[in-house]
Amino acid sequence: MKKVLAFDIDQTLNIAKTPVPDEIADLLNDCLNYYQICPISGQKFDQFLIQIVDRLVERGATPAQLKNLHLFVAQGTQYYRYTGTEWEQVYNYPLTDEQVEKITNAIETSAKELGYWEEDKLKDGDEIIENRLSQVTFSALGQKAGTKEKYAWDPDCKKREKIVARCKEIAPEFDYEIGGTTSINAITPGMNKEFGMTHMLEELKVTKDEILYFGDMTQPGGNDYPVVQMGIDTITVRSHEDTAYALRGILGVTEKK
Does residue 60 share a domain with residue 180? Predict the structure, then answer.
């Protein structure tokens, strides 16, 4: 019997970098009555609030329901839970300043050599490389770029595969994962979603068989693939519409019990 529903965010719960739509917010709120809900993504804490938490509250989530929502930030290398009044950080495994500098140099050098450094396309105040404490993230067009532009930039992941290959030559001591529409997450070895899911098991005191995971990057090299390798039951989706369809079915069965 499943006790936990875990989700990637971009392309799984929403259109990349946008708040979850009403239907997903409503379905997640319903799920909070029966399951522990665990978004796990490479995004930073503020984005979890903007894209998920604020939307659930807008759609009527209560403090009691939010206690069943667990935020596994930066691939689960940071974990936040709701106390009833605020979000508290349970743990954090940050990179050192030296590691951040090495990763940043490797990504910038690789992207520039390959002609994929497009600083001229950034919106005011945006950045291509972001320090997310426990990981460094490359976003080719920045965080504020339009959805249409992001989807068009690297739909087959070929650009990012080339960047990753070059990064591995420059700084092989780190791992690089492709995620979202334009992103690469750089981490220390082992600090991927397997790390986050392992901590999820420990923090929520559940077994692998009690978790169902939803993600769009479940192929080898994708940032959801470590979850597949762990043997956790996984549903591969192409969009939030696929996720909504699956959740309606899960709730239909759950509510009849």
Answer: no
